[in-house]
């Protein structure tokens, strides 16, 4: 509980390769004092699904199904990234404790669903950094910005 026995604000931070540092730093610098942070990482099912499809075709005959190995590697990568983000959050936020969510599915839909009850979602831009406007957001980020049920903080 924070001052006045009010619960802290629930701040979700969508962490992804290449943009997670900016998102974590913005969350620390701009979230209200006493906020509870949740780091969210989504593994797309596209990679393992493509591997499974190749295995089912002629490419995979006589070899072990690579989808399970790719899924395991993706889960390990997600865990490492969440660990790094949590460490940065703890270092920069004076020991700030956070929750970690590693989910799978269609990235944009999972982020919107997971953050539905958040007070704030922090998202870093991931498109063409040389442009302003719509092309400066990737497809998944554009969907999240357009469909999130909570306020979205979009950072460069």
Provide a descriptive summary of the structure in words.
There is one protein chain. The chain has 156 residues and is α/β, with parallel strands linked by helices. The chain is 42% helix and 19% strand. It contains five helices and five strands. It has a five-stranded parallel β-sheet with strand order 3-2-1-4-5, with helices on both faces. Strand 4, helix 5 (139-147) and strand 5 form a beta-alpha-beta unit. Helix 1 runs parallel beside helix 3, helix 2 (46-56) runs antiparallel to helix 3 and helix 4 packs parallel to helix 5. It is globular, with a radius of gyration of 18 Å. The two termini are 31 Å apart. The model is unreliable at 1-5 (pLDDT under 50).
* Arrangement of strands in the largest sheet: 3-2-1-4-5
Low-confidence stretches: 1-5
Q: Can you summarize the main beta sheet?
A: 5 strands, parallel
Number of strands: 5
- Given the C-alpha coordinates, what overall shape results? globular
- Helix fraction bin: 40-55%
Overall mean confidence score, pLDDT: 83
Our count of helices gives: 5
Q: From the helix content, strand content and strand pairing, which structural class follows?
A: alpha/beta
Q: Give the amount of beta strand, in percent.
A: 15-25%
Topology as H/E string?
A: EHEHHEHEHE
Instruction: Please give the radius of gyration in angstroms.
Output: 18 Å
Report how far the terminal alpha carbons are from each other: 31 Å
Short structural description:
42% of the residues lie in helices and 19% in strands.
